[in-house]
Structure formats: C-alpha cells, structure tokens
Amino acid sequence: MLTPDNHPVWEVYDLHRTARLNVLYYEKKLARYELANTTLDVLVAVLAPSSAAAGFFFFKNDHGKEIWATLCAISSTIAIVKPFLRLAEKIKTIEKSLTAYRIMDYDLRALCKRIRSELDYTKQCKKAFDEIDERLKGLAVNAPNIGKDNKLRDKLFESVVVELPKTSFFIPEIKT
Q1: pLDDT tens digits along 82-111
Q2: Structure pTM?
Q3: How far apart are CA 118 and CA 110, in angstroms?
Q4: What is the distance between the alpha carbons of residues 167 and 18, in angstroms, rounded to a whole number?
Q5: 86 SS3 class
Q6: CA–CA separation, 140 and 148 (whole Å)
Q7: Taking a C-beta distance cutoff of 8 angstroms, is the pair 31, 98 a contact?
Q8: What residue segments make up the domains of the chain, in order of their start?
Q9: Could you report the per-residue pLDDT of 119-153, keeping only the tens digit for each?
C-alpha cells in the first residue's frame, strides 16, 4: 500500500540529498588536495637552494647552514615525490565529478520545485528523474580514485539533513 513515507517521489528527494552530499564532499576534498598541492609547491620554491630564503642571516652561521642543508634536502625530496602523488590529476578528476554533481544537484532542485508547483509527481517528472538518475551511472564509473573519508561524509550528511529536511519536501496526494 502506498503511503507518504514510501511514495515514489522519495526517489527524487533521496537522490537530491545524495547529489547535495557529493557536492559538499567533493568541495571539501578538492580544497584539501588544492591546499596540499599549493603547500608542496610553496615549500619547494621557498626551500630550494636558489631561493631568496637562502640569504637569510640566520642561515649564515654553522648551525644555520646545517638547518638550511636539511631544509634543502626536504625540498628535494618533496620535488621528487610530488609527481608520484599525482595531485594535479586527482584535482582534475575531483573537479570533473564536482561539476557533474553540481549540475545534478541543480537539476534535482529544479525537479523538486516542479513537483511542488504541479502538486504532483507526473509522468514527465518521472521521465526527467530517470534521465537524471541515468547520469549517476557515469558518475559512479568515473568517480575519483581518492581515499574515502567516512568521518567527513557523516559530518556532511548531517548538514545535508539540516539543509534538506524531510519536511521540506512535498509529497503529492496518493491517488487510489
């Protein structure tokens, strides 16, 4: 028996929440990867033997020279290791997924507005949902190969629930 809690329109709302969660998740992950990439670039630039930092007065004495030599070794190690981290590639794939989820989030938000304005989950709405849902396959197949952060995902899920509570969704009248 169809009830408000198991109405087919919940497919739309559940996917909307999922899309929104993925937008927030990939935004956070992208910010972290960009910060790591920028930090490593700055460290290599500042700690390179040819950098202006080498001229600082405190690197001129014996103790400072040892510290500078250690910092240069760290810089060299970072410069060697950084390409193997493939941060630029990961950033690019996260950006691609983030863009796709933002589009999906927008499309689902528009579909939710349409359902509310029509006061019904029509066949046209269902067709629009099916088209949006079909795109999810491509997103899953091309998901960025980055470590999963369940703690972050759980935290963001809570914010999605606050942003999109069940009570904010319109449940059409059940036709018998």
Answers
A1: 999 999 999 999 999 999 999 999 999 999
A2: 0.86
A3: 12
A4: 17
A5: coil
A6: 14
A7: no
A8: 10-168
A9: 999 999 999 999 999 999 889 888 888 889 999 99
